[in-house]
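[job 0417] fold request received: Putative spermidine/putrescine transport system ATP-binding protein
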Amino acid sequence: MTSAVRFQQVSRHFGQVRAIDGVDLEIAPGEFFAMLGPSGSGKTTCLRLIAGFEQPSAGHIQIFGETADGVPPYRRNVNTVFQDYALFPHLNILDNVAYGLMVKGVGKAERLKAANDALELVKLPGYGARRPGQLSGGQRQRVALARALVNKPKVLLLDEPLGALDLKLREQMQEELKSLQRALGITFVFVTHDQGEALSMADRVAVFNDGNIVQQGTPQDIYRRPRTRFVADFVGSSNVIAPDLMAALGGQKRWASLRPEAIHLAGDGIEATVEHASFLGAATRLGVDLRGSRLHVMLPAGAPVPDVGAGIRLAWQPADIHYMDDAA
Ligand code: ATP
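[job 0417] inference complete; emitting C-alpha coordinates
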Protein backbone atom coordinates (compact mmCIF):
# COMPACT_ATOMS: atom_id res chain seq x y z
CA MET A 1 0.00 0.00 0.00
CA THR A 2 1.15 3.53 -0.71
CA SER A 3 2.26 5.34 2.44
CA ALA A 4 0.59 8.61 3.38
CA VAL A 5 4.00 10.00 4.28
CA ARG A 6 7.37 8.47 3.50
CA PHE A 7 10.80 9.74 4.53
CA GLN A 8 13.89 8.19 2.99
CA GLN A 9 17.06 9.13 4.83
CA VAL A 10 15.84 12.67 5.40
CA SER A 11 18.11 15.20 7.09
CA ARG A 12 17.61 18.86 7.86
CA HIS A 13 20.68 20.68 9.08
CA PHE A 14 20.86 24.32 10.14
CA GLY A 15 24.57 25.10 9.94
CA GLN A 16 26.17 22.85 12.54
CA VAL A 17 22.81 21.86 14.08
CA ARG A 18 21.50 18.51 12.87
CA ALA A 19 17.82 19.12 13.61
CA ILE A 20 17.03 15.77 12.00
CA ASP A 21 19.61 13.38 10.69
CA GLY A 22 18.93 10.45 8.35
CA VAL A 23 15.33 9.73 9.32
CA ASP A 24 13.35 6.89 7.71
CA LEU A 25 9.64 7.05 8.33
CA GLU A 26 6.45 5.53 6.92
CA ILE A 27 3.03 6.69 8.00
CA ALA A 28 0.06 4.66 6.75
CA PRO A 29 -3.09 6.23 5.27
CA GLY A 30 -5.70 6.86 7.97
CA GLU A 31 -3.20 6.42 10.75
CA PHE A 32 -3.06 8.54 13.91
CA PHE A 33 0.70 8.95 14.22
CA ALA A 34 2.44 10.65 17.17
CA MET A 35 5.91 12.14 17.16
CA LEU A 36 7.09 12.10 20.75
CA GLY A 37 10.32 13.44 22.20
CA PRO A 38 11.95 16.04 24.41
CA SER A 39 12.36 19.67 23.42
CA GLY A 40 14.84 20.10 20.58
CA SER A 41 14.72 16.46 19.46
CA GLY A 42 13.54 17.33 15.93
CA LYS A 43 9.78 16.68 16.00
CA THR A 44 8.68 20.09 14.79
CA THR A 45 11.30 20.10 12.06
CA CYS A 46 9.87 16.77 10.83
CA LEU A 47 6.38 18.21 10.79
CA ARG A 48 7.55 21.32 8.94
CA LEU A 49 9.24 19.11 6.36
CA ILE A 50 5.96 17.27 5.75
CA ALA A 51 4.12 20.60 5.48
CA GLY A 52 6.72 21.98 3.10
CA PHE A 53 7.76 24.92 5.31
CA GLU A 54 11.24 23.35 5.35
CA GLN A 55 13.14 21.53 2.62
CA PRO A 56 15.39 18.54 3.38
CA SER A 57 19.16 19.08 3.32
CA ALA A 58 19.34 15.46 2.11
CA GLY A 59 16.95 12.60 1.40
CA HIS A 60 13.47 12.41 -0.10
CA ILE A 61 9.89 12.83 1.08
CA GLN A 62 6.81 11.36 -0.60
CA ILE A 63 3.21 12.18 0.22
CA PHE A 64 0.70 9.59 -0.98
CA GLY A 65 3.25 8.22 -3.41
CA GLU A 66 4.13 11.54 -5.01
CA THR A 67 7.43 13.27 -4.49
CA ALA A 68 7.27 16.34 -2.30
CA ASP A 69 10.70 17.51 -3.43
CA GLY A 70 10.31 21.16 -4.42
CA VAL A 71 6.51 21.11 -4.00
CA PRO A 72 5.31 24.26 -2.13
CA PRO A 73 3.11 23.90 0.99
CA TYR A 74 -0.14 24.99 -0.69
CA ARG A 75 0.14 22.23 -3.30
CA ARG A 76 0.63 19.37 -0.82
CA ASN A 77 -2.89 18.50 0.34
CA VAL A 78 -1.56 18.86 3.85
CA ASN A 79 -2.80 21.27 6.52
CA THR A 80 -1.33 22.28 9.87
CA VAL A 81 -2.94 23.16 13.19
CA PHE A 82 -0.45 25.29 15.12
CA GLN A 83 -0.11 25.42 18.88
CA ASP A 84 -0.95 29.13 19.01
CA TYR A 85 -3.90 28.53 16.61
CA ALA A 86 -2.79 31.47 14.40
CA LEU A 87 -6.33 32.81 13.93
CA PHE A 88 -6.92 36.22 12.36
CA PRO A 89 -8.18 38.42 15.23
CA HIS A 90 -9.99 40.91 12.97
CA LEU A 91 -12.02 38.28 11.10
CA ASN A 92 -15.05 36.57 12.56
CA ILE A 93 -14.98 32.83 13.15
CA LEU A 94 -16.81 31.91 9.95
CA ASP A 95 -14.43 33.99 7.81
CA ASN A 96 -11.45 32.57 9.68
CA VAL A 97 -12.61 29.04 8.84
CA ALA A 98 -13.50 29.93 5.25
CA TYR A 99 -10.22 31.78 4.64
CA GLY A 100 -8.34 28.92 2.97
CA LEU A 101 -11.21 28.34 0.55
CA MET A 102 -11.38 32.04 -0.30
CA VAL A 103 -7.66 32.01 -1.16
CA LYS A 104 -8.34 29.03 -3.43
CA GLY A 105 -11.06 31.05 -5.19
CA VAL A 106 -14.06 29.02 -3.98
CA GLY A 107 -17.31 31.03 -4.35
CA LYS A 108 -18.82 32.75 -1.33
CA ALA A 109 -21.95 30.62 -0.84
CA GLU A 110 -20.01 27.40 -1.19
CA ARG A 111 -17.20 28.40 1.16
CA LEU A 112 -19.55 29.67 3.86
CA LYS A 113 -21.50 26.43 3.72
CA ALA A 114 -18.29 24.41 4.00
CA ALA A 115 -17.15 26.62 6.92
CA ASN A 116 -20.47 26.12 8.71
CA ASP A 117 -20.21 22.35 8.18
CA ALA A 118 -16.66 22.38 9.60
CA LEU A 119 -17.82 24.36 12.66
CA GLU A 120 -20.52 21.78 13.20
CA LEU A 121 -17.94 19.02 12.97
CA VAL A 122 -15.91 20.56 15.80
CA LYS A 123 -19.08 21.20 17.83
CA LEU A 124 -19.15 24.98 17.44
CA PRO A 125 -22.28 25.59 15.39
CA GLY A 126 -23.65 29.09 15.86
CA TYR A 127 -20.30 30.66 16.77
CA GLY A 128 -19.56 31.96 13.26
CA ALA A 129 -20.27 35.63 13.96
CA ARG A 130 -17.93 35.94 16.95
CA ARG A 131 -14.32 37.12 16.88
CA PRO A 132 -11.48 34.89 18.15
CA GLY A 133 -11.07 37.19 21.18
CA GLN A 134 -14.59 36.28 22.28
CA LEU A 135 -13.85 32.55 22.56
CA SER A 136 -12.20 30.43 25.23
CA GLY A 137 -8.87 28.70 24.57
CA GLY A 138 -10.59 25.37 23.93
CA GLN A 139 -13.04 26.96 21.50
CA ARG A 140 -10.23 28.70 19.63
CA GLN A 141 -8.50 25.36 19.35
CA ARG A 142 -11.61 23.92 17.71
CA VAL A 143 -11.78 26.83 15.28
CA ALA A 144 -8.16 26.19 14.29
CA LEU A 145 -9.10 22.57 13.69
CA ALA A 146 -12.17 23.54 11.63
CA ARG A 147 -10.02 25.92 9.58
CA ALA A 148 -7.67 23.09 8.68
CA LEU A 149 -10.42 20.51 8.06
CA VAL A 150 -12.41 22.75 5.73
CA ASN A 151 -9.68 22.22 3.12
CA LYS A 152 -10.27 18.46 3.28
CA PRO A 153 -6.55 17.67 3.60
CA LYS A 154 -5.32 14.13 3.15
CA VAL A 155 -2.84 14.68 5.97
CA LEU A 156 -3.49 16.87 9.00
CA LEU A 157 -0.44 17.99 10.98
CA LEU A 158 -0.94 19.01 14.60
CA ASP A 159 1.89 20.73 16.46
CA GLU A 160 1.21 20.40 20.20
CA PRO A 161 -2.36 21.53 19.55
CA LEU A 162 -3.50 20.87 23.11
CA GLY A 163 -0.48 22.39 24.85
CA ALA A 164 -2.25 25.60 25.85
CA LEU A 165 -5.30 23.91 27.40
CA ASP A 166 -5.81 22.99 31.05
CA LEU A 167 -5.70 19.31 32.00
CA LYS A 168 -9.43 18.58 31.99
CA LEU A 169 -10.06 20.28 28.67
CA ARG A 170 -6.98 18.60 27.22
CA GLU A 171 -8.31 15.17 28.14
CA GLN A 172 -11.68 15.99 26.64
CA MET A 173 -10.08 17.27 23.42
CA GLN A 174 -7.86 14.18 23.23
CA GLU A 175 -10.96 12.01 23.08
CA GLU A 176 -12.70 14.30 20.61
CA LEU A 177 -9.69 14.53 18.30
CA LYS A 178 -9.41 10.76 18.29
CA SER A 179 -13.12 10.28 17.47
CA LEU A 180 -12.96 12.94 14.78
CA GLN A 181 -9.93 11.31 13.21
CA ARG A 182 -11.68 7.92 13.20
CA ALA A 183 -14.83 9.38 11.68
CA LEU A 184 -13.01 11.33 8.94
CA GLY A 185 -10.34 8.74 8.17
CA ILE A 186 -7.76 11.50 7.59
CA THR A 187 -4.12 10.75 8.42
CA PHE A 188 -3.22 12.72 11.56
CA VAL A 189 0.40 13.42 12.46
CA PHE A 190 0.67 14.79 15.93
CA VAL A 191 3.69 16.32 17.71
CA THR A 192 3.85 16.17 21.48
CA HIS A 193 6.36 15.96 24.32
CA ASP A 194 3.65 14.45 26.54
CA GLN A 195 4.04 10.68 26.61
CA GLY A 196 0.56 10.12 28.10
CA GLU A 197 -0.99 12.01 25.22
CA ALA A 198 1.01 10.07 22.62
CA LEU A 199 0.24 6.68 24.15
CA SER A 200 -3.46 7.33 24.64
CA MET A 201 -4.20 8.82 21.23
CA ALA A 202 -1.87 7.34 18.64
CA ASP A 203 -2.07 4.15 16.57
CA ARG A 204 1.71 4.34 16.32
CA VAL A 205 4.36 6.44 18.02
CA ALA A 206 7.84 7.51 16.89
CA VAL A 207 10.14 8.44 19.77
CA PHE A 208 12.66 11.15 18.86
CA ASN A 209 15.98 11.85 20.50
CA ASP A 210 18.65 14.16 19.20
CA GLY A 211 17.45 14.36 15.60
CA ASN A 212 16.76 10.66 15.20
CA ILE A 213 13.86 8.27 15.67
CA VAL A 214 15.04 5.86 18.35
CA GLN A 215 11.96 3.62 18.32
CA GLN A 216 8.71 3.31 16.38
CA GLY A 217 5.79 1.10 17.25
CA THR A 218 2.35 0.79 18.77
CA PRO A 219 1.85 2.47 22.15
CA GLN A 220 1.82 -1.00 23.76
CA ASP A 221 5.15 -1.90 22.12
CA ILE A 222 6.83 1.30 23.14
CA TYR A 223 5.53 1.11 26.68
CA ARG A 224 6.20 -2.57 27.35
CA ARG A 225 9.28 -3.13 25.23
CA PRO A 226 11.37 0.06 25.21
CA ARG A 227 14.42 -0.59 23.07
CA THR A 228 16.81 1.72 24.92
CA ARG A 229 17.22 3.29 28.33
CA PHE A 230 16.26 6.65 26.86
CA VAL A 231 12.90 5.31 25.66
CA ALA A 232 12.25 3.53 28.98
CA ASP A 233 13.01 6.74 30.88
CA PHE A 234 11.09 9.05 28.60
CA VAL A 235 7.99 6.95 27.94
CA GLY A 236 6.08 6.19 31.09
CA SER A 237 7.50 5.71 34.52
CA SER A 238 9.52 2.54 34.07
CA ASN A 239 12.15 1.48 36.57
CA VAL A 240 15.50 1.29 34.82
CA ILE A 241 17.71 -1.32 36.48
CA ALA A 242 21.49 -1.25 36.02
CA PRO A 243 23.37 -4.44 34.88
CA ASP A 244 25.06 -5.00 38.22
CA LEU A 245 21.85 -4.90 40.21
CA MET A 246 20.07 -7.04 37.61
CA ALA A 247 22.79 -9.67 37.93
CA ALA A 248 22.66 -9.48 41.75
CA LEU A 249 18.91 -10.10 41.58
CA GLY A 250 19.49 -13.28 39.62
CA GLY A 251 18.94 -11.84 36.14
CA GLN A 252 21.31 -11.13 33.24
CA LYS A 253 24.09 -8.56 33.57
CA ARG A 254 22.30 -6.11 31.26
CA TRP A 255 20.22 -2.95 31.55
CA ALA A 256 16.57 -3.79 32.06
CA SER A 257 13.26 -2.04 32.56
CA LEU A 258 10.50 -3.08 34.92
CA ARG A 259 7.14 -1.33 35.11
CA PRO A 260 6.09 -0.16 38.60
CA GLU A 261 2.73 -1.90 38.23
CA ALA A 262 4.47 -5.25 37.59
CA ILE A 263 6.01 -5.22 41.08
CA HIS A 264 3.98 -6.52 44.01
CA LEU A 265 4.44 -7.17 47.71
CA ALA A 266 5.23 -10.82 48.50
CA GLY A 267 6.32 -12.45 51.76
CA ASP A 268 9.17 -14.34 50.10
CA GLY A 269 10.31 -11.44 47.88
CA ILE A 270 13.44 -9.27 47.83
CA GLU A 271 13.92 -6.90 50.77
CA ALA A 272 13.43 -3.19 50.22
CA THR A 273 12.68 -0.10 52.32
CA VAL A 274 9.80 2.30 51.73
CA GLU A 275 11.09 5.85 51.33
CA HIS A 276 8.07 7.59 49.97
CA ALA A 277 4.35 6.99 49.30
CA SER A 278 2.14 9.10 47.02
CA PHE A 279 -1.61 8.62 46.92
CA LEU A 280 -2.68 9.01 43.29
CA GLY A 281 -6.37 8.23 43.58
CA ALA A 282 -6.59 5.10 41.45
CA ALA A 283 -3.33 3.74 42.92
CA THR A 284 -0.55 4.47 45.40
CA ARG A 285 3.01 4.88 44.16
CA LEU A 286 5.81 3.85 46.51
CA GLY A 287 9.39 5.00 46.17
CA VAL A 288 11.53 2.22 47.62
CA ASP A 289 15.22 1.60 48.18
CA LEU A 290 16.30 -1.76 46.85
CA ARG A 291 19.99 -2.43 47.46
CA GLY A 292 20.87 1.21 46.99
CA SER A 293 18.67 1.81 43.91
CA ARG A 294 15.43 3.79 43.91
CA LEU A 295 12.51 1.89 42.37
CA HIS A 296 8.86 2.78 42.03
CA VAL A 297 6.12 0.33 42.88
CA MET A 298 2.49 0.92 41.95
CA LEU A 299 0.02 -0.54 44.45
CA PRO A 300 -3.57 -0.95 43.28
CA ALA A 301 -6.31 1.04 45.04
CA GLY A 302 -7.48 -0.69 48.18
CA ALA A 303 -4.19 -2.55 48.82
CA PRO A 304 -2.72 -1.89 52.30
CA VAL A 305 -0.06 0.86 52.09
CA PRO A 306 3.09 0.23 54.17
CA ASP A 307 4.48 3.05 56.31
CA VAL A 308 7.41 5.16 55.17
CA GLY A 309 10.53 3.61 56.69
CA ALA A 310 9.02 0.10 56.79
CA GLY A 311 10.88 -2.92 55.44
CA ILE A 312 8.91 -4.72 52.72
CA ARG A 313 9.50 -7.59 50.33
CA LEU A 314 8.99 -7.24 46.58
CA ALA A 315 8.47 -9.74 43.79
CA TRP A 316 7.70 -9.72 40.05
CA GLN A 317 7.33 -12.19 37.23
CA PRO A 318 10.56 -12.90 35.33
CA ALA A 319 8.61 -12.20 32.11
CA ASP A 320 8.09 -8.61 33.27
CA ILE A 321 11.82 -7.94 33.15
CA HIS A 322 12.54 -6.38 29.77
CA TYR A 323 16.19 -6.29 28.70
CA MET A 324 17.24 -3.37 26.54
CA ASP A 325 19.53 -3.17 23.50
CA ASP A 326 22.06 -0.84 25.01
CA ALA A 327 22.65 1.63 27.79
CA ALA A 328 22.08 4.66 25.57
P1 ATP B 1 10.17 21.50 20.78
O1 ATP B 1 9.37 20.44 21.45
O2 ATP B 1 10.90 22.38 21.76
O3 ATP B 1 9.43 22.26 19.73
P2 ATP B 1 11.37 19.83 18.74
O4 ATP B 1 11.62 18.42 19.10
O5 ATP B 1 10.18 20.13 17.95
O6 ATP B 1 11.39 20.74 20.03
P3 ATP B 1 12.83 21.18 16.67
O7 ATP B 1 12.07 22.44 16.80
O8 ATP B 1 12.57 20.32 15.50
O9 ATP B 1 12.69 20.31 17.98
O10 ATP B 1 14.38 21.56 16.71
C1 ATP B 1 15.41 20.60 16.58
C2 ATP B 1 16.77 21.32 16.64
O11 ATP B 1 16.94 22.14 15.47
C3 ATP B 1 16.92 22.25 17.83
O12 ATP B 1 18.25 22.16 18.28
C4 ATP B 1 16.62 23.62 17.24
O13 ATP B 1 17.29 24.63 17.97
C5 ATP B 1 17.17 23.48 15.84
N1 ATP B 1 16.46 24.35 14.87
C6 ATP B 1 15.17 24.26 14.50
N2 ATP B 1 14.84 25.19 13.60
C7 ATP B 1 15.96 25.91 13.39
C8 ATP B 1 16.29 27.06 12.56
N3 ATP B 1 15.39 27.61 11.74
N4 ATP B 1 17.54 27.51 12.60
C9 ATP B 1 18.47 26.95 13.42
N5 ATP B 1 18.24 25.90 14.20
C10 ATP B 1 17.01 25.38 14.20
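[job 0417] notes: The chain has a mean pLDDT of 92. The pocket of adenosine-5'-triphosphate is lined by residues 14, 17, 19, 37, 39-45, 193 (CB under 6 Å).
[job 0417] exit 0
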